[in-house]
Amino acid sequence: MSDPIDDYLDALLFRLLDDPSRNYDDAAAIRRAVAESEDHLRETQRVAMAGGTGDVAAAQLAVERFGSVDDVAGRFRRSGTGRSDLTLGSVARTLWLMTGIGFVAIGISGVVAEVFGEVWGQAFVAADLPGVTYTPARCAQYAQLAPGHATCEQAATAHHFGEVVQYRVAAGVLGLLILLAYRVWVHLTRRRGRSTALVPATLLETAGAALFGVAAAALLLISVGQEASGMSAGSGAYLSAGLVSLLMTGTFALLLVRSASRMDHQVPDSSE
Amino acid sequence: MLLAVLASGPAHGYAVITDLHQRSGGAFDLPEGTVYPALHRLERAGLLTSSWEPGTTRRRRVYALTAKGHRSLAAERKQWKVFAGGVNLVLAGAS
Hints:
The structure holds two protein chains of two kinds. By secondary structure, chain A is mainly α. Helix content of chain A is 76%, strand content 0%. Chain A has ten helices and no strands. In chain A, helix 1 packs antiparallel against helix 2 (27-50). The longest helix of chain A has 40 residues, at 152-191. Chain B is α+β, with helices and mostly antiparallel strands. Chain B has one domain (2-94): Orthogonal Bundle (Arc Repressor Mutant, subunit A), CATH 1.10.10.10. Chain B has helices spanning 2-6, 13-23, 35-44, 67-94; strands at 11-12, 48-52, 61-65. In chain B, a hairpin with an 8-residue loop joins strand 2 and strand 3. The longest helix of chain B has 28 residues, at 67-94. Chain B is elongated. The two termini of chain B are 29 Å apart. Chain A binds chain B through residues 29, 32-33, 35-40, 42-44, 65-68, 71-72, 75-76, 78-81, 269-272, and chain B through 1-3, 12-14, 17, 20, 28, 30-38, 40-42, 44, 58-61.
């Protein structure tokens, strides 16, 4: 039969570690919280057993008097155990991470633009606006850059489409390299026992949702505006970027709701 | 309240909670695990200091008031007396 105190401590440790904004410097604080909790629980068990209670019942009593894991873990988090602080270092690390995520999002929009081109044609993503004329020199240049097309307009569209997709995918690759560098840095820094903490989770998620939300609104409005005014040529470029921004906004918003609901479960302390 | 309990001398968390329960005549029957985060926060605020107690079979951390903690306790006691006096006057007037 498992020991109720061991089970409780396992659950408490799990909850204290289960925090994306956890400051690595707080590993010692988390270890201390669990050690103090164990000492208290074992002492309560010992006193109860001295009064004639059986060992398992005494352990159960100690756990019940200690409070729920959710409540205790939540209060430890609020006390600073396992919680990030807003420092210059944490802001810089967060900017590093967010820059990588931003570039990866641009790369994903390049893939979406490629799909749009396959489904609705390259003109939907990258055609010049109606009425644009091409000089013979410019036309020859496009024919050289995108050979095999019957008209200057088609060659220009193919060239622009290639630029939209390739530049964005290149940005995505750059983003992956930034994130890889970040991951390596985190690994090496943790091995040296130094901080890799980000800004508090709710702040990071709010900033992410707000930034991508503004980008999504602007890009989608431009795209819809172009469609509404009958100038659908090229609107797919904005639409692809807008949809990816919207997806990122939703992701950050979901993470924010999860973090906020965790905070809602934390009751203010009354013992101080 | 935790500062008041520790004003009489250093104590570990279990003793603090037991003392708080006894001094309040059982009125403060808090979930015991919630007191440790409060002790940690007071320590981060500089009102308490703590260290692992040497020579015990289990690791046990002992808390003690700092000079800042003593000053904070004195200020809070004074503030509470003013508040409690005001409440007593209002309640006496109501009866």
